[in-house]
Design a protein that fits this description.
The structure is a single chain. This protein is an alpha+beta fold and 108 residues long. It has helices at residues 30-34, 59-62, 68-78, 85-92; strands spanning 4-9, 12-20, 23-28, 52-54, 100-105. Strands 4-3-2-1-5 form a five-stranded antiparallel sheet.
C-alpha cells in the first residue's frame, strides 16, 4: 500500500513523500535541486540529493495535518483513522495554510 504525494513549495513542484513498508521517505526532485532559487521546505529537511527516511511520519509533514474540529470533519467526511497520518496528509493538505501543499499521486 505504498501511497505517494507530490509536494509543492510556493506552487512549485519540489519533491515526493512516500509511505513505504518501513515507514516514510521524502526526496527533492532533481529539477528543484538544480534551481538556484530553490528553498528547503523545512529546516529539518534541508536541500540535499538523496532520500530522507523515517520510521514515523516526518514531524514537518505531520504538522501540516489539521487538528481539532477540522480534523474531526476530515475524519468523518473521508472516514480516515486518526492514526493514518499518510491518508490524512493526502486528503487534507492540498490547500493547507503555508507554502507547502501535498497532492496524492494515483497509479494509472
Amino acid at each position: 500500500m505504498n501511497r505517494k504525494g507530490k509536494v509543492s513549495f510556493e506552487d512549485h513542484y519540489c519533491g515526493i513523500i512516500e509511505e513505504t513498508d518501513n515507514g516514510y521517505q521524502f526526496s527533492y526532485s532533481p529539477d528543484y535541486l538544480n534551481d538556484p532559487l530553490a528553498k528547503a521546505i523545512s529546516k529539518t529537511l534541508p536541500l540535499v540529493k538523496g532520500v530522507y527516511n523515517s520510521n514515523t511520519m516526518f514531524p514537518f509533514f505531520d504538522g501540516l495535518i489539521p487538528e481539532g474540529w477540522l480534523l474531526d470533519i476530515a475524519q468523518k467526511h473521508w472516514k480516515i483513522d486518526i492514526r493514518d497520518r499518510m491518508g490524512l496528509l493526502l486528503v487534507c493538505c492540498k490547500d493547507c495554510i503555508g507554502a507547502v501543499s501535498i497532492e496524492p499521486i494515483t497509479k494509472k
